[in-house]
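Duplicate of #3305? Posting structure anyway:
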């Protein structure tokens, strides 16, 4: 099923999130990563080169993510923090797997 044209609010969200998080980190319900990638490409957005995680940041993530979730004090976007924690198999006890309460 094809979704209607992109609304102004969706484009605003795309412009804010896509460069930092890529197509899977953009919080748009009903839009697939492929659709998000296509729309971003059409308006000239590119994913910024993500900074690599330092050993110290990974240590902090392993120690603090279970309690703090995406609020873990490392210099990365919350969506990137959640994705890295998932990739490492780290779960957030407080919010049930890294998602914010109510998500």
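Output from current build:
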């Amino acid at each position: 099923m094809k979704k209607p044209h992109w609304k102004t609010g969706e484009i605003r969200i795309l412009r804010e999130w896509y460069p930092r998080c890529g197509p899977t980190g953009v919080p748009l319900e009903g839009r697939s990563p492929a659709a998000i990638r296509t729309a971003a490409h059409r308006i000239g957005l590119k994913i910024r080169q993500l900074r690599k995680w330092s050993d110290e940041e990974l240590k902090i993530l392993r120690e603090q993510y279970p309690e703090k979730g995406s609020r873990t004090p490392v210099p990365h976007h919350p969506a990137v923090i959640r994705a890295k924690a998932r990739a490492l198999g780290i779960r957030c006890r407080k919010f049930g797997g890294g998602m914010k309460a109510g998500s």
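Confirmed duplicate; merging threads. Confidence is low (pLDDT under 50) at residues 97-103. The chain has two domains: 8-42, 52-103.
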